[in-house]
Design goal:
Elements lengths: L2 H9 L6 H7 L7 H12 L8 H6 L1 E3 L5 E4 L3 H17 L4 H19 L7 H9 L8 H13 L6 H15 L4 E11 L6 H20 L6 E9 L17 E4 L2 E4 L8 H4 L2 E10 L3 H15 L25
Parallel strand pairs: 2-5
Antiparallel strand pairs: 1-2, 3-7, 4-7, 5-6
Amino acid sequence: MPVAAIKEIFSKESPDNSFFVQVISSDLDCDRLDYLRRTAHCSGLPYGTVDIDYLIDQARVDDSGYYCFSHKALRAADHLLVSRYYDYLQVPFHKTVVALEWSLVTCIRALIERRMIACSASDIVGKIKDGEWPLFDDNHFFALFHQLRKTLDRDKAADALLGVHLDALLNRKTAKLLHFHESVEDKTLDPSAHASRVRAANRAVDDLAKALGISRDYFHVWDTRLELTKAGSKYQDSDSGGGVHIFHDGKARPLSDSPQALMRTLSKYQFSGVRVFMIDNDALASEAKLILEANLGAVSDAGAAEFDAQGRETPSPIAKP
């Protein structure tokens, strides 16, 4: 296949490549059919117990050449999408994983800025050609992190902060979760609600940093939105979107259109999460928690302070953990 054609597929530049696009980037593409089982095996979580082989066996191409699954695979597809949702919440979105990722990004950025690693496109190509790419792994990075820690001047504010992030990775002293808001909500009620919570959290953190007299860089506001089905695509035609399609009457139809599918209801909802982390010692984190509670207001166990009866956001956007 010509390089230009491969580029069109991965960039989703042409609807003519919808079959290949669906195979490599959709709710049930080749990667998603594989990683859920691997994650379950490595983490010990049960969410990978999905009949992947059956789904693969039921893969079809409709009369228009569109990638889909037979009608018999409808419930298996439903099951996989729900399992993937809980896998995301329990693994990629776990508070410890999120905290460690923040520290990891910070430390890798420091390696690049201090020219301890080179990651430009030409550098990567050079490593591949020289056979060095397989050595560019976790062990290599952790060895560099140990070297980096030895070069720090803890009297300098930037190095002191970087040292805390290195300790998080090397000694598992992860950032503390101060506050969070997590909810499953109707996507159609208030599309701006999530962004409002993020802005409110950032304002609260700005005030908190000033109150403690420390750098804003000691705090991290993490946010995410997760839909159970892939949201749209670059194509205007909804039939070319990234959702699961089921073969029925000679045509691929969206799973969410089927009255038998759980996704018909769940596709209208999304998970919204906003969290505030602090990377420092326990004593300072405890004080920070108290200040945030005072600034954001108390939240009842029922979450009454978060939303009013119409689902509109109230001034307290982040729930106590």
